């Protein structure tokens, strides 16, 4: 259970009310990019490490949806000079990926499900806040279009079985 604690602690810190405040366009784009990279990379780990059909199915959907989201955001920012996207996940997300990569079997499944429940909730909070009150019209439209897909992933993550 010890390796799960850093993952849950890191994700819980981002679920604070302060995180839900609307961020500047650059911050929103960077945080969304990191969330999509984490989604794709953690899904890839799950596809290799889990034997659970439910987790595999979720991971396929997660990789596809976050890949599409990331691609759409890159298309928007490629035309602009005021927003630069990160090339890789931030340190917190890299640590979570490293922790997940070190786990096997039921420990992996349990940590992956917990991480996805928190990560999807975090993504919904970020994108919902920007869709409602973001300052950049193009990114605000992107957020509004992306939100239903993220809400569906959040529901699916919450419905995943938790290994005992």
Describe this structure in words.
This protein is an all-alpha fold. The chain has a single domain, classed as Up-down Bundle (Ferritin), CATH 1.20.1260. 79% of the residues lie in helices and 0% in strands. The protein contains 7 helices and no strands. Helix 1 packs parallel to helix 6, helix 4 runs antiparallel to helix 7 and helix 6 runs antiparallel to helix 7. The chain is elongated and about 45 Å long. About 5% of the residues have low confidence.
Give a quick summary of the entry.
This protein is mostly helical and about 160 residues long. The protein has seven helices and no strands.
What is this structure's SSE topology?
Elements lengths: L3 H11 L2 H4 L4 H25 L3 H26 L12 H11 L3 H29 L3 H23 L5
Helix pairs in contact: 1-5, 1-6, 3-4, 3-5, 3-6, 4-7, 6-7
CATH class: Mainly Alpha
Q: What class do helices, strands and sheet pairing give?
A: mainly alpha
Number of domains: 1
Biggest beta sheet summary:
none
Distance between the termini: 11 Å
The CATH superfamily turns out to be Ferritin, core subunit, four-helix bundle
CATH topology: Ferritin
CATH architecture: Up-down Bundle
What share of the residues does DSSP label as strand, in percent?
under 5%
Tell me the helix content. Answer: over 70%
Mean pLDDT: 89
- Figure out the total of helices: 7
Uncertain regions: pLDDT < 50 for 5+ in a row?
12-20
Shape summary: elongated
Q: Give me the strand/helix succession.
A: HHHHHHH
């Amino acid at each position: 259970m010890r390796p799960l604690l850093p993952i849950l602690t890191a994700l819980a810190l981002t679920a604070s009310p302060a995180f839900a405040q609307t961020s500047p366009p650059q911050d929103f784009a960077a945080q969304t990019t990191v969330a999509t990279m984490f989604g794709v990379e953690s899904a890839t780990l799950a596809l290799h490490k889990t034997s659970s059909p439910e987790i595999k199915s979720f991971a396929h959907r997660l990789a596809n949806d976050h890949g599409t989201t990331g691609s759409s955001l890159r298309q928007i920012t490629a035309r602009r000079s005021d927003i630069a996207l990160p090339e890789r996940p931030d340190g917190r997300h890299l640590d979570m990926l490293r922790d997940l990569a070190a786990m096997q079997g039921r420990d992996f499944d349990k940590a992956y499900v917990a991480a996805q429940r928190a990560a999807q909730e975090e993504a919904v909070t970020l994108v919902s806040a920007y869709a409602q009150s973001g300052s950049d019209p193009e990114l605000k439209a992107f957020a509004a279009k992306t939100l239903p897909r993220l809400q569906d992933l959040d529901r699916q993550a919450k419905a995943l079985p938790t290994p005992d």
